[in-house]
Design goal:
Low-confidence stretches: none
Helix content: 25-40%
Strand content: 15-25%
Mean pLDDT: 96
Number of helices: 18
Distance between the termini: 71 Å
CATH superfamily of one domain: ATPase, nucleotide binding domain
Shape: globular
Largest sheet: 7 strands, mixed
CATH class of one domain: Alpha Beta
């Protein structure tokens, strides 16, 4: 009986696979690293064949640990970062790298090479921008494609296929050129609520009028929870599965995490609107849903049916969150390579210092966390970080104080996002946190105390894999729909309430945080 599913999550540094049963229990998981090429500042590239190989290794390893037979797997689902895969007219690899290596055929989501092209898109003021906060981010696919056409014309002329990474994986698995509604709506300026999703006049304005034909981009999309098709014989062999295994429509990784974290509310649209998913790792993604379209400034969306049917999704976030703490550790004289052990040592020492000093620990250190731009709510990819209050202290305790105040700055950034969302009619009061930050007690405390929200930590901290598994279970008929699957597979979570005794302290920090934004703008505006 095909009563199990496999979820594959391709992140920035690795591919992970999990085997789930029909009740959402994670039976086994495995991980394999992937290569990233950083040839110059703001450039980051993957090798898509390396990614596929890592996926196959992880799936085979997870299946081996699970002890179940391949014939028990009804479906496999893929989620991935919003990286851009380019193939030639024969489906072979073609370089997107200024270094010219053919194997680097994928522009990574965090790549900011297309800043000028993103600014050009914003300047068009086209109506598609109403669904990206009226600002185009260089992390979206259109600016990257514009850069490719302009800077690597030989690659453009040879190109025959353009994929969001999740769609590339479903193509490798099935041979189907179908694309996910989740990916095209969120990252390709496809308007799923329109009869004609592609806006050809916009493509003409940005000199990509040949995009759809050159990239084999279809008119229609496949909803989350629907099947793309069955595994091809080649893919089944590579993955160690069977050709009777369905392949679910791909998902953006953060949205898979939102589905996993909020799936318990999938059948309660009103209750869903009060929940917010915070998928926090290298970057942070904040995802909320609403029954009505609520346009906003500086946030991505609203996207129609990017996850749930007849529902609008809005996304905000921070381009560097965990990555910022890594950076602080790496750059400080008392730091070093930011391993998990070093982070744990810093966190433990922070607890000791706070017990001794209380709110005085690093109180004069103020941090704007925009070291890789401000994704939300300012939507300014050119923004830079600011640190105020540094001294000549190069001790380990000095590092701990700076780390602590950087974590406060990250949490204040989330509060800034939530306050802005409220201005546009969103009403979330509960944060469902998933991802690597769940392992960091400093951040988990701050997310509750700084925002004033109730925080839910899922019993199983694998929301991204779970969301992908939920969609896969629907695609093969193991579950009837996303709401049914959510009720059956959501594991529940533990609550953390904010400490109201600290409210005045963080209210003051938030006022200073906003003042720093004003002061940064004043400095940059001076002649």
């Amino acid at each position: 009986m095909r009563d199990h599913v496999i979820a594959v999550d391709v992140g920035t540094g690795s591919a992970r696979a999990g085997v789930f049963d029909a009740h959402g229990h994670l039976l086994a998981k495995a991980e394999h690293s992937i290569i990233m090429n950083r040839p110059r500042e703001n450039h980051a590239e993957h090798d898509s064949e390396d990614i596929w190989a890592a996926v196959c290794i992880a799936v085979r390893a997870a299946m081996g640990q699970s002890g179940i037979a391949a014939a028990a797997v009804g479906a496999i689902g893929f989620d991935a970062t919003c990286s851009l895969v380019v193939r030639d007219t024969e489906g072979r690899q073609i370089s997107v790298s200024t270094g010219g290596e053919t194997r680097f055929d994928t522009i990574v989501w965090l790549d900011h090479r297309a800043l000028k092209e993103a600014d050009f898109c914003t300047a068009t003021k086209h109506e598609v921008l109403e669904h990206s906060g009226n600002v185009m981010s260089p992390e979206m696919e259109m600016p990257k494609l514009m850069w490719l056409k302009k800077k690597l014309p030989a690659t453009w002329e040879k190109a025959g296929y353009f994929f969001d990474l999740a769609d590339f994986l479903t193509w490798k698995a099935t041979g189907s050129l179908a694309r996910s509604r989740c990916t095209l709506t969120a990252k390709w300026n496809y308007l799923a609520h329109r009869e004609q999703g592609w806006q050809q006049d916009f493509l003409q304005q940005i000199d990509l009028e040949d995009l759809r034909a050159r990239g084999h981009l279809p008119d229609e999309t496949v909803a989350v929870g629907e099947s793309i098709g069955k595994l091809s014989p080649q893919a089944a062999e590579a993955l160690g599965l069977t050709t009777d295994c369905c392949v679910a429509a791909g998902m953006i990784d953060a949205y898979a995490g939102a589905l996993g974290a909020l799936s318990g509310y999938a059948g309660d649209p009103a209750g869903l609107e009060q929940q917010l998913a915070l998928i926090a790792g290298t970057s942070s993604c904040v995802v909320a849903f609403s029954r009505e379209r609520k346009p906003s400034q500086g946030m991505w969306g609203p996207y129609y049916e990017a996850v749930f049917p007849q529902s609008w999704l809005v996304e905000a976030g921070q381009s560097a969150a965990g990555a910022l703490l890594d950076h602080i550790v790496r750059m400080h004289a008392a730091g070093g390579e930011p391993t998990a052990v070093l982070h744990q040592r810093i966190v433990a020492r922070i607890a000791e210092l706070r017990a001794e000093e209380g709110a005085a620990l690093g109180a004069r250190i103020l941090v704007l966390p925009d070291f890789h731009g401000n994704r939300s709510p300012l939507a300014d990819p050119h923004a830079v970080g600011v640190v105020s209050g540094l001294t000549l202290d190069t001790s380990f305790d000095g590092l701990c104080a700076l780390y602590w105040r950087t974590a406060v700055g990250i949490a204040l950034g989330i509060r800034h996002i939530l306050e802005t969302m409220k201005d546009y009619g969103y009403v979330p009061d509960t944060l469902h946190v998933a991802g690597g930050h769940v392992k960091n007690p400093v951040l988990m405390e701050l997310y509750a105390d700084v925002t004033g929200c109730k925080v839910i930590v899922p019993e199983m901290n694998e929301a991204v894999l779970l969301g992908t598994a939920i969609a896969a279970s629907v695609s093969c008929g193991l579950q009837r729909d996303l709401a049914t699957a959510g009720r059956a597979m959501y594991p529940g979570g533990a609550e953390r309430l904010p400490d109201r005794n600290k409210q005045a302290i963080y209210d003051r920090d938030y006022r200073r945080f906003l003042a720093m934004y004003r002061h940064r703008a004043e400095l940059e505006a001076m002649d």
